[in-house]
Specification:
OB fold (Dihydrolipoamide Acetyltransferase, E2P), 2 helices, 188 residues, alpha+beta, two-stranded antiparallel sheet
């Protein structure tokens, strides 16, 4: 009877340790939401009444311009999924310009790459898309997330994700054991 109690106690201890480690290792690759998620770049460009608001927008890059101390990204906005990934299979929601501090490599930030930016609306810039006039909301001092190229239409496959596995087992002769493993993998 003593052996059965030891097995149950050992298994419970392994389960508890595994749960603590799993909780400690749980991470996400989401971009934190900010501001009014229903406010689109097209609405801001039309109304001009949102200066000073902090927002999270994302989309597909149209152009990258490096300036002296910052980089401007012109982005075709799309609705975001719950993690902030642009859903390019949806209707565009307007264009906007992100001003990120420092230098962003144009070879990495090339047209059609997906990005999500969180920043403050500071201005509306008059410009053009082709020959058509356009009013671009500006997100300043933005934190920019460049998504892996495999992500399209909210599909998260190809995104590196952490994983943890827990195993507990027993055998004849009173032996029991447990193990915990983890890593980062890509699912395709």
């Amino acid at each position: 009877m003593k052996s059965h109690t030891a097995h149950a106690t050992g298994a419970a201890a392994c389960t508890l340790i595994g749960a603590v480690i799993l909780t400690g290792c749980a991470t996400t690759d989401c971009v934190e939401s900010a501001g009014n998620p229903g406010l689109t770049p097209a609405q801001v460009g039309a109304t001009q009444g949102h200066t000073g608001e902090r927002l999270r927008w994302g989309g597909a890059l149209a152009a990258t311009r490096n300036l002296r101390d910052s980089t401007e990204l012109e982005i075709i906005g799309y609705p975001l999924d719950r993690c902030g990934v642009p859903r390019v299979g949806q209707q565009p929601i307007g264009r906007f310009i992100v001003v990120a501090p420092g230098f962003l490599e144009p070879a990495d930030y090339r047209p059609e790459r997906l990005v999500t930016a969180t920043g403050m609306i500071t201005d509306i810039r008059d410009g053009t898309v082709g020959a058509a006039p356009y009013r671009f909301p500006m997100l300043a001092n933005a934190k920019v997330t460049l998504w892996p190229e495999a992500i399209r239409d909210g599909d998260r496959s190809g995104t590196p994700r952490p994983w943890v596995s827990i195993g507990i087992g027993g055998g004849s002769g009173g032996w029991y054991g447990g193990g915990i493993g983890g890593g980062v993998g890509v699912q395709f």
